[in-house]
Amino acid sequence: MKGIVLAGGLGTRLHPLTKVTNKHLLPVYNQPMIYYPISTLVKAGIKDIMIVTGGERAGDFLRLLGNGSVFGLPHLHYGYQEGAGGIAEALYLARHFAGDDCICVILGDNIFQDDFTQQISDFEKNDGAMVFLKEVENPQEYGVAVLEGDKIVDICEKPKKPPSNYAVVGLYVYEPDVFKVIETLTPSERGELEITDVNRHYLSKGRLRYKILNGYWGDAGESIDKLLMVSNKVRELGLSLNINSNIM
C-alpha cells in the first residue's frame, strides 16, 4: 500500500491567510497542517508516501518536510499539479509512483483521530474502493452518502437538500485500476475532475465499500472559523503525531 497526500489548490476559502502561502502549511494548533495527514498514513503502517502540491509555494513543502525523516520515513516523493484541475486530476499525477500497488489517498487539510491500520491492512487489490463517512451538521458542504440499510447507493456532491448527514471525508483507498477510471472522467461544471465521480464509478460496479468513523474528523480548509475550531479540537483531544521531535 502506498500513500498519497493531496496538498494543492488555491486555498481561496482561507484568504487572506493563503495569499502568501499554501493552506496546508498553515498551523493547526502547534504543528503545520500537512503534518497531520502524513502522520495518519504513517500510523496506519504506510511508509511509501508522495506529496502532490502546486502553486508558487510548492518549494516550501520540500524545505519543511525534506526527505521525511521527521516521520521516520526513508524518503518522500513529490509531485506538482499545475493549476486547479480537481482532486482526481491531482491524484492522477501519482500514477507512476503508485505502479501496481493499492493506494490510500488523504486530503492535506483533513484531520483524523481514528487509526486506519486495520482497514489498510485488510484491503486487497480486488477490493475496488473504500470511502469513510462521518455524520456532520453541515452535509451540504461535502459529498454526501445516500444509504439504504447497510449499503451505500449514491453519493451527491454538495447537495442543496442533503439526503443524509453522512459526509464522505477526505480519505480514500483504491485498487491500482483507479488511474484507468480517472482517464474516463470528464470535467464537472467547475472544470475539474471530481473524486466523487471516481467513487461513483466503483459504486456503479458494486465495488465501493464504506466505514463510518468513530473518532473526530475535521476539515481545516473549509473556512477560517473551521481552521480555528479544528485547532482548538486538536488541542483539546491532545492528538499526537508520529514525528521525531528531536530532528524537527
From TrEMBL:
It catalyses: dTTP + alpha-D-glucose 1-phosphate + H(+) = dTDP-alpha-D-glucose + diphosphate. Pfam families: NTP_transferase. One of its GO terms (molecular function) is glucose-1-phosphate thymidylyltransferase activity. It is an enzyme of class 2 (transferase). The keyword Transferase applies. Its cofactor is Mg(2+). It comes from the Bacteria. InterPro entries: G1P_thy_trans_s, NTP_transferase_dom, Nucleotide-diphossugar_trans. Belongs to the glucose-1-phosphate thymidylyltransferase family. This is glucose-1-phosphate thymidylyltransferase. It comes from Candidatus Coatesbacteria bacterium 4484_99.
